[in-house]
Amino acid sequence: MSPTAQGRTVIRGDTADEDGTDTFVSIDPRTGEVVGTHPVHGPAKVAATVRAARPAGAWWAGLGFAERARRLTAWRRLLVGRLDEFAALICAETGKPLDDARLELVMVVDHLHWAAHNAERVLGRRRVPTGLLMYNHVATLEYLPLGVVGVIGPWNYPAFTPMGSIAYALAAGNAVVFKPSELTPGVGEWLAASFAEVVPEHPVFTVVTGFGDTGAALCRSGVDKVAFTGSTATGRRVMATCAETLTPVLVECGGKDALIVDGDADLDAAADAALWGAMSNAGQTCVGVERVYVVEPVADRFVELLVAKAAGLRPGGEPGADLGPITMPAQVDVIRRHVREALDRGARAVVGGRDSVRPPYVEPVVLVDVPEDAPAVAEETFGPVVVVNRVSDVDEAVRRANGTGYGLGGAVFSRARGAELARRLRAGMVAVNSVLSFVAVPALPFGGVGDSGFGRIHGDDGLREFTRAQAVTRRRFAALLHPMTFDRGSRTVRRLVRLIRLRYGR
Ligand code: NDP
C-alpha cells in the first residue's frame, strides 16, 4: 500500500482485479472506513473506453432531441426515486451531512431537467437572416454534438459539479467519459450505472477511475473536448496536456469569492448568508464566501451578528452536524497555514482560532482585520474560514474584491446599489442580497475569469459549450448580381459597390 498526494491509499498488485489492474479504495473521512474499491485505469483502458464511446455517441446523437429528452427524463426520475441511497453514498465518500448531500442532488435533478428540455430550443436548427448580399439564399444554423466529451471532476460536490458538464453534454448529443476524483470514485460509478439502466443499449456515459494519471490519459485519449473542474494548478496541467493533441478544454477552477456589505444592507440577512456561504460544506465550495468587505459604519454590528450566528455551528460526523470533515486530508495543512499566518500578522479571530483545526474537522473560524496580502485573503482556503475586513466605502470594497487573480463568483448586500455593484465585480456570477443562488438557476451560465478558468457550464452557454456550430447556406434562386463566379463580368462588382455605398455609406 502507498499513500497518494491527497492522502488516500493505493493497493497495488495483491488486490488487483482479475485482469491485474491495480486498485485503490475510497474512504469515509469521518471514520477512516473503506467505502469501496476501484480500479486504477491506465492509458490503454482509458483509450479503449473512449473508443467504445465513439459509436455509442453517434447512436445517441442519432436519437434526436425528443428521444434523448425522454431518456434523460427517465434518468431524472430514477435519480429522484433513489435520492436517499445516492445521498448516503455522497455522505460516505465526502463526509458531508446528509441534508447537504440531499440538497446537492435536488440541484442535480433540476439541472438535468432543464438541460433535457432546453437542448432543442438552444441547439436545434434555425433560420437566420442572410443580409443584403446573399438575399437569394436560406441560411441555417445548428449546433451539433462534438462526439465524445471527457469530464474530469472534483470531490467537493461530487455529483453536482461534474453533472454541470455531464448532463449538458449528454443533452447536446455527446457521449461522456467521466473521471471522478480519486476521493469520490463511487459517486461517479453510481451515476454511470444509473444512467445505463435507462440507456442500456450502448456505453453512452461511462466512468474511468484512478488518480491524476488517469485524468491525464483522458486528456490524451482523443476525446473531442475535456471539461475540467478542479484546482487552478491542475487546470493549468490539464490545459497543457490537452494542448499536445489540440483538444479543446473547458476549465472551471477555484475562487476567492468576496461578499460586499453596503451601509444600507439588511445586516441580519447579510450575516446569515455570509455564514452559510463561508461555512456550508465545511467551506469546501468553489463559490464559497472566503472574504467579506463591510463598510465601516455597519462593520461592528455586522461582525457582532456574524459571531452570534456562528456560535452555534458544530462540525461532526453525526447526521445532524452543521458541517462535516475536511474531505481531502492534505487541505487541512493549507487551512492551518492560512489561519496561523493571518494571526501572526495581526489579524484577530472573533470566532475560533488556531485550535479550531482538529483533523478531520475544522471548527468555524472568523478572522477580522487581515492584511490584504496574507494567504487567507489572497489564496483559496477551501475550509470553514472567513475573513471580514472593513472598508471606508463600497468603492474600496469593489477594488479589494477584484484584487485577486481569481474571478469566479461574488455577492453584494445592498438595498439601493445591488445591481450596480454586482456589475462592477470581476466575476462570472454575482448574487445580490443572497449567496450562491446562481448555482441553482439552471438557465444561468456558470464559470469564471482569470485564475478561475474559462468557458461556461449551465444554461444556454453550457449547452453550446459541448457542440460545434454548423452554418449552412442553401441557394434558392439565381441572384441578379452574382459576384462569386469567373463569369461575373466587369460590371457586377462595380454595381455591388454602388449598392453598398448607397446602403451603408451614408
Ligand atoms: P484537483 O485539481 O486536485 O482535481 C480535480 C480533478 O483533476 C480530479 O479528478 C483529479 O484526479 C484530476 N487530476 C489531477 N491531476 C490531473 C492531471 N495531471 N491531469 C488530469 N486530471 C488530473 O481538485 P480537487 O478535486 O481537489 O477539487 C477542489 C478544487 O476544485 C478547488 O480548487 C475548487 O475551487 C475547485 N472547484 C471548482 C469548481 C468550479 O465550478 N469552478 C467547482 C468545484 C470545485 P485525482 O482526484 O485522482 O487527483
TrEMBL record:
Active site per database record: E252
Regions crossing the membrane: none
Domain Aldehyde dehydrogenase, first and last residues per copy: 20-472
Domain of life: Bacteria
Record carries keyword Oxidoreductase: yes
Pfam families in UniProt: Aldedh
Keyword Translocase: no
UniProt keyword list: Oxidoreductase
Disordered: annotated span: 1-22
InterPro entries (UniProt xref): Ald_DH/histidinol_DH, Ald_DH_C, Ald_DH_CS_GLU, Ald_DH_N, Aldehyde_DH_dom, Aldehyde_DH_NAD(P)
Family: Belongs to the aldehyde dehydrogenase family.
Database matches in PANTHER family: ALDEHYDE DEHYDROGENASE-RELATED
Listed name of the protein: Aldehyde dehydrogenase
Lineage of source species: Bacteria, Bacillati, Actinomycetota, Actinomycetes, Pseudonocardiales
